Amino acid sequence: MQAQEIHFLVQAGGHLMGNLRVPGDKSISHRSIMLGSLARGTTHIKGFLQGEDSLATLQAFKAMGVHIQGPNTSGEVIIEGVGMYALKAAEQPLDLGNSGTSIRLLSGLLAGQGISLTLTGDSSLSSRPMKRVTVPLAAMGAKLVTTTAGTAPIDIHPVKELTAINYTLPVASAQVKSAILLAGLYAKGETCVIEPAPTRDHTERMLQSFGYSVKVQGNRICLQGGGTLTACDIEVPADISSAAFFMVAASIAPNSDITLEHVGINPTRIGVINILQQMGADISLYNQREVGKEPVADIRVRSSQLKGIAIPEDQVPLAIDEFPVLFIAAACAEGETVLTGAEELRVKESDRIQAMADGMKVLGMEAEATPDGIKIQGGIPFHGGEVDSLGDHRIAMAFVVAGLRASSAISIKNCANVNTSFPDFVSLAQASGLQVKVA
Ligand code: S3P
Asked: What b/e sequence results for 146-181 when a residue is b if at least 16 CB atoms lie within 10 Å of its CB, and e otherwise?
């Protein structure tokens, strides 16, 4: 990864028009490789995200002996599943780059495989908290060793068997929930996870697509260990987290009218739509349909005058990856926007509260970081300048969107990691009306 080398330059102004399809959902792409590899039979995937994060998961399974073809240029991947217990110890540590989903879900999935492995990542991933997965996995009998700071590398040691647990998540995290459920596939008995608030449920849905029974009763998700997965076909919808940049862009840039095609609108992911609509955005959903077990729609967004709001805390886990760009929406809205209950943003690919507050101040916006959120005074005209994305893809793309309303150009440093989630961002952004280029 060359996080130091790519910078973006955004000219001020512009508006968005037309139809666009953003790349495949990152969370679903990861899970399709994981479950396809453990299944019996051949899994065909369409719309796979060819970003560095999901490709890191794909490479990890190849390194563990799974035969995977693709992705070809249209995102088709074919996996010859090896079954539940046939992954091989890789010769080298598995390098998962920038990807929190890969390292946390693999910790659970590999805990009961009976093989020795090491999981590593880049400097951002190596500073993120891993105890949130290793502690509950240890309670199941897994032997996972982190650094004393509770960070990667994670050494996985073979154990004879895992035992099911009932685990109440201390934080609302789909990555932790998924790690425990994936370990639960290998555990004796019924594993249950209790969530403090709903989080993305792609693991539960996809397990069912692969024929594995998952019981969901309110906030309690349970599965019985010892079953098998049967290969299936997966169509990955466009990623709502990538679509979010264009939803905000079209909302804040006058004379905009765009339609985002085939976007995943799983109810556990639509916080960004709910929040923007509450701020007064003009967003309509068309052609709602099911693809596999995931709902999708075409989303039309037209310019509107947004207003500041107190963001309801129950929306936080449902919009957890969309806050950087929502902060830009708030800066363009009339009045104050207040976010609370979002301390998790401090342990993402960067400390997203601080990184955004710092960059917003450089541009003359009024943003005050708080321990668990931010206060933004919107409606104040802002200018250009040089901001640092700190190698965080979503910070970089959020500041590109800010260019639409800035009075002069914005230069954004350290943008290489946009490739982790959105490889064609610059060309798609240009095609829709954003005046961005690689500097
Ligand atoms: C993800 C869950 C979220 C999200 C991440 C992807 C997933 O993390 O921020 O980008 O695919 O399960 P947490 O569950 O830790 O909040």
From this structure: beeeebbbbebeebeebebbebebebbbbbbbbbbb
Common-topology check for domains 8-24+237-438 and 26-235: yes
Closest atom of ligand 1 relative to the 31 alpha carbon: 11
Q: If one looks up domain 26-235 in CATH, what number appears?
A: 3.65.10.10
- The 3-state DSSP class for residue 226 equals coil
Q: Please name the residue whose Cα sits nearest to atom 16 of ligand 1.
A: 173
Distance 319 CA to ligand 1 centre (A): 10
Q: Which of 35, 57, 105, 173 to mutate to test the pocket of ligand 1 (most atoms within 8 A of CB)?
A: 173
Span from the CA of 174 to the centroid of ligand 1 (angstroms): 6
The residue extents of the domains of the chain are 8-24+237-438, 26-235
Q: What is the DSSP letter of 310?
A: B
Q: Quick one: pLDDT at residue 185? A: 98
Is pLDDT above 50 for 3?
A: no
Q: DSSP character for 150?
A: S
Peptide bond into 371 cis (omega under 30): no
Question: Measured in angstroms, how far is the CA atom of residue 182 from the centroid of ligand 1?
Answer: 15
pLDDT tens digits, one per residue of 382-426: 999 999 999 999 999 999 999 999 999 999 999 999 999 999 999
At the topology level, CATH places domain 8-24+237-438 in UDP-n-acetylglucosamine1-carboxyvinyl-transferase; Chain (3.65.10)
| pLDDT tens digits for range 274-306 | 999 999 999 999 999 999 999 999 999 999 999
- Ligand 1 lining (C-beta closer than 6 Å): 27, 101, 173-175, 178, 199-200, 320-321, 344
